[in-house]
Amino acid sequence: MSTTLLPDHETTQVLDRTVVTRPSLRDTLDQSLAMAWRALKKMRRNPEQWFDVTLQPLLFTAMFAYIFGGAISGSVQEYLPIVITGILAQTALTASMATGIQLREDMDKGVFDRFKSLPIARIAPLVGPAIADLARYATAATLTILTGLLMGYRPGGGVPGVLAGWLLTIIAGWSLAWIFTYLGTRARSAQAVQGISMMIMFPLTFLSNAFVPADTLPGWLEAFVKVNPVSLVISAVRDLMNDGMVTANVGWALLGCAVIVAVFLPLSVRSYSRKM
Amino acid sequence: MTPVPDTDLAVAASGLVKTFDDFRAVDGIDLEVRRGEVFGVLGPNGAGKTTTLKMLATLLPMDGGEASIFGVDVRRHPHMIRQLVGVTGQYASVDENLTGSENLWLFGRLQGLSSARAKVIAKDLLERFGLAEARDKQIKTFSGGMRRRLDLAASLISQPPLIFLDEPTTGLDPRTRGQMWETIRELIRDGSTVLLTTQYLDEADQLADRIAVIDRGIKVAEGTPDELKTSVGSSTLQLRMSDPDETVGAADVVRRVLGEAPVLTPEAGGMNAALTDANQAADVLIALRQSGLSIASATVQKPTLDEVFMAITGHSAEDETHEPQMEASR
Ligand SMILES: Nc1ncnc2c1ncn2[C@@H]1O[C@H](COP(=O)(O)OP(=O)(O)OP(=O)(O)O)[C@@H](O)[C@H]1O
Ligand SMILES: [Mg+2]
């Protein structure tokens, strides 16, 4: 049962109809967009799906800034450039985690039986929600930045820097989501995805430079923090937003994202198609 | 690809096997469904009906055997099979969060229809299935019967030449059930080939041209409804006396004529007597008249499929005592 993306597709005649041996690239795209449409409809009708990308950025930004600000940077004001970028990455990560959990939940529903029985590319039911979730990552990033600005954050990168950081956050969220999508296709239940995802998410966010500068940590921890892909993204976002500079960090972050997608997207499609 | 050879068979499957752990849910089933016919797979709970259908629909991998649909190999060309078969599963597979028309539109788009065309087809199907007024309601608010009809509508969007219906009327009230039968008969009139499963004997009798009876993953009988009934042999005389007090006397007369006592039925004055030859009915009726006993009704019936099932498998179809061993351990 090999899958999808191959652009060549042969046709053959069965009874009076022409059938294709596999979906074309064009079909795959159309089907993915149709699935994205479905996911967006679902989001609009279940407002609770927005809690993690609306309330959480607001609460966490305020909470972390006032609690840690004095201790880590001397003042809330000076801590803002660190904490805002840290929370950007954190919310992108939690939002992408929700992508995996919701996919798992969705897959247990009857309608997925129909998706499986339809002649659609096996990648479409996975890519569709991923496309729709861009809206969630964008919301989370926008709200975090706005909260920061309200609290007095004045990013040195100016409007272009902030826009670039915003965009990178969304790209990172989308890429990381493939890890959780893969988990979603493998795990037995949505709860299992949630549990495993938490175990992945906590070390990734807290053992990063999200909230504290890496050089304050013991050596062994610093080593992990430095290779943590979330740290890469955060450093890159900081360079863009706070300094307005496109540094090597940005390149590393994008490369990290690309690697994650290149590994986990095919794994997800394979594991999903094998489920039948 | 080389063209698929023309075949008269819509489904040709041999030796289908599906094992879950070491439990053989489907244990070597052969099926041949001819083009244009309605083929019924009849069996009790846990017989393996859904599992068989799912393998044929590429929803479950086959653990053994061969299957082709209109000559296309199921294992090798799942994507082609999905273009030929419309599946209505045992449990409604529509999206709860979408409305009736959104569901059909989505499934149409997924199958390559333009947005406008998908809208037209969705509207037509909703009207045809009596769902027009529920067009803009989310499925969450649908009744069970509406869901099933929408589900069936959803499998017809691409007008597939073969339609799978897995227990299309389970859980429906008698009126809705009758409507569903009428809908299925319409499909048949339109020339579709239908493979349906059911645990209701009368449903198979009503709808199917040919029936395979399966039990615990094995096919135990196959034939037309009439052949299956005849294979059991006798017919039954059903009597009801006008005066329930005369039941005992009447039963006595029947026993004298037939040499075997009739079975009393729950309704007042009712009894069933087994006949080896339908002409014996006349003897019984004459004897009753001569004894001055008056009957309210008398019918001679071929055996029901339930009796057929009893005769073939040694247990009743409604008898659920052999509930799947797996369910307990899951
Ligand atoms: N995914 C599964 N894992 C383990 N056992 C299964 C699975 N699916 C089905 N079974 C078992 O296989 C057997 C056949 O199931 P199947 O659903 O095909 O029966 P059925 O004839 O459709 O019954 P029903 O009338 O209840 O729908 C049952 O004993 C069932 O418990
Ligand atoms: Mg079933």
| CATH C-level of the largest domain in chain B | Alpha Beta
- Work out the radius of gyration of chain B: 24 Å
State mean pLDDT of chain B (0 to 100 scale). 87
- In terms of structural class, how would the helical and strand content of chain A be classed? mainly alpha
Number of strands of chain A: 2
Low-pLDDT segments of chain B: 320-330
Order of helix and strand elements from N to C terminus of chain B: EEEHEEHEHHHEHEHEEHEHEEHEHH
Going by helix content, strand content and strand pairing, the class of chain B is alpha/beta
Question: What is the strand arrangement across the widest sheet of chain B?
Answer: 6-7-8-3-9-10
Q: Estimate what percentage of residues of chain B fall within beta strands.
A: 25-35%
- What strand order characterises the main sheet of chain A? 1-2
Based on CA inertia axes, which overall geometry of chain A fits? elongated
The pair of chains with the biggest contact is: A-B, 38 and 40 residues
Number of domains of chain B: 2
Textual characterization of the structure:
The complex is a heterodimer of chains A (276) and B (330). With 276 residues, chain A is mainly α. Chain A has one domain (24-274). In chain A, 75% of the residues lie in helices and 3% in strands. Chain A has 11 helices and 2 strands, in the order ββααααααααααα. In chain A, helix 1 packs across helix 5, helix 2 (51-73) runs parallel beside helix 6 (134-151) and helix 3 packs parallel to helix 7. By secondary structure, chain B is of the alpha/beta class. Chain B folds into 2 domains: 9-228, Rossmann fold; 233-302, Alpha-Beta Plaits (2-Layer Sandwich). Chain B has helices at 49-56, 78-84, 100-110, 115-128, 144-154, 174-189, 201-207, 225-232, 247-258, 280-290, 305-313, 325-329; strands spanning 9-20, 23-34, 38-42, 64-69, 72-73, 85-88, 162-166, 193-198, 210-215, 218-223, 235-241, 263-264, 270-275, 295-301. In chain B, the strands form 3 sheets. Chain B has a 6-stranded mixed β-sheet, sandwiched between helices. In chain B, strands 2-1-4-5 form a 4-stranded antiparallel β-sheet, with helices on one face. A 4-stranded antiparallel β-sheet of chain B has the order 12-13-11-14, with helices on one face. In chain B, strand 7, helix 6 and strand 8 form a beta-alpha-beta unit. Chain B is globular and about 75 Å long. The complex binds adenosine-5'-triphosphate and magnesium ion (MG). Magnesium ion binds next to helix 1 of chain B.
